[in-house]
Amino acid sequence: MPGAINSVKVQSIPMDDWHFTFILHASITAADVGKAVALDTTAEATVKLAGDNEAIFGRLETFEDRVVEGIKVGTVATKGIMRVPYTGSVVVGTVLVGSATAGSVKPAADAAAAGAQPQARIALDIDATNGVVHALFA
Fold first, then answer.
1. What is the distance between the alpha carbons of residues 122 and 133, in angstroms, rounded to a whole number?
2. Which residues touch 25 (CB under 8 Å, ≥6 apart)?
3. Measured distance CA(36)–CA(16) in Å, rounded
4. What does the pLDDT profile of the chain (138 residues) look like in tens digits?
5. Looking at residue 25, what DSSP letter applies?
6. How many structural domains is the chain composed of?
7. What is the per-residue pLDDT for 1?
8. What Å distances lie between residue 138 and 25, 101, 114, CA to CA?
């Protein structure tokens, strides 16, 4: 049964001490809230949607377009149990990395890709009906 582990429903569990405000890449929109993000190494304090085989930095929790200031900002959760979209064949215990579908995650193809993760991003529960995985961001 999707979402159940030994009759315990896995839900997103935020850890408020691990929510941080970042500048968002110009391509991010309000529709991207809830997707996986990676650090944008081309700009300071900026995140972008996680791309293919990129280390996942966290999950975008909020979006704000500060038109007057010319920037977009958002809150990124970097630790907790988070619900994010996935592609490919994810199984429980899989180490996750960014997918070719921006903002989604996929299984790390090999040990090198899994090792690219600075922290563990591990699948706990797969909801194939809704196309999301609950993952531990530790």
1. 10
2. 40, 43, 46, 47, 48, 49, 72
3. 17
4. 455 555 555 566 666 778 999 999 999 999 999 999 999 999 999 999 999 989 899 999 999 999 999 999 999 999 888 899 999 999 898 889 999 999 999 998 765 666 666 567 888 888 888 888 888 887
5. P
6. 1
7. 44
8. 24, 23, 14
CA–CA distance, 44 with 46 (Å, rounded to integer): 5
CATH classification at residue 22: 2.40.300.10
Q: Residue 50 carries which side chain, given as an amino acid letter? A: A
Q: What was the pLDDT predicted at 108?
A: 87
Q: Where are the beta strands (DSSP E) in the chain?
A: 4-5, 8-9, 13-14, 19-24, 36-39, 46-49, 58-60, 64-66, 71-77, 80-85, 96-98, 105-107, 121-127, 132-137
Report the C-alpha gap between 78 and 127 in whole angstroms. 21
- Tell me the whole-structure pTM to 2 decimals: 0.83
Q: How far apart are CA 32 and CA 16, in angstroms?
A: 20
- Domain housing 74: 4-137
